[in-house]
Design brief:
Mean pLDDT: 93
Shape: globular
Strand content: 25-35%
Length: 236
């Protein structure tokens, strides 16, 4: 489905990603973990079309995405839930959700998709006419994920969905992400919460200083002494 081959991304003269290769298969949940400033957001923004590739190849469902305008990525089937959510806080929950379904094929199924989103996040049904800025952080994250799902994506990109959320809300959020994936939507999850990300993913990549330093089956990465020491504070 998604194939990145040796991509490089830079901000002016400063290279942020070096020769990163990554893949996501249909209906697969893949995570990318790593420390702050590793290049995780740069990577997911490149996959969403917001960062231009300096070099390398990016294909999605056989289509060359490297030179495609950013506004066409959603039409191709890619939806991004950005870090910090970026809702229209003075608009209602319903209005924010409906904004996700502006492309023709999504608009045609708006009612059915909205029903699915409200089933996934029942609290939003109670808050549907409230302004989004009045919601808790966890509820706002639900709206952000729901808005992306309204676009009927084939690949859902999630950038740090647990950021700033209470531990109990994080558990609910990861359960919802897993349920979305079980519905057949491919998910690429960018996370600092290494243990939880690797627990729900099938495969994972470790990004450090703009380079992939480890990859593999999620369980194997989670049980790796190197990963446990570096990210989980566990010393064998």
């Amino acid at each position: 489905m998604l194939e990145l081959q040796n991509i490089q991304v830079a901000y002016g003269p400063a290279t942020a990603l070096w020769d990163v290769s990554l893949s996501v298969q249909p209906a697969e949940l893949v995570c990318v973990v790593g420390p702050n400033a590793a290049g995780k957001t740069t990577l997911i923004n490149a996959i969403a079309g917001l960062n231009t590739l300096v070099s390398g190849r990016m294909h999605f469902n056989g289509q060359d995405m490297a030179k495609l305008p950013a506004h066409q990525f959603c039409d191709a089937g890619i939806a991004l839930v950005p870090e910090s959510r970026r809702l229209f806080v003075e608009m209602s929950v319903l209005e924010n959700l409906e904004l996700g379904s502006y492309i023709a094929r999504a608009k045609a199924q708006r009612a059915q998709t909205l029903e699915m989103v409200l089933e996934l996040f029942p609290i939003l049904k109670e808050k549907i006419n409230q302004v989004s800025g009045a919601l808790s952080g966890g509820q706002q994250q639900m709206v952000a994920i729901g808005r992306a799902l309204m676009a009927k994506p084939k690949l859902l990109l999630l950038d740090e969905p647990s950021l700033g959320l209470a531990p109990s809300i994080v558990l609910d959020m990861f359960a919802a992400i897993k349920k979305v994936n079980q519905e057949g939507i491919s998910v690429l999850l960018i996370e600092q919460n290494v243990s939880m990300a690797l627990e729900i993913a099938s495969r994972g990549y470790v990004l450090e200083e703009g380079r992939v330093v480890a990859e593999g089956v999620a369980n194997e990465l989670l049980n790796s002494p190197q990963i446990q020491k570096a990210y989980l504070g566990i010393h064998s």
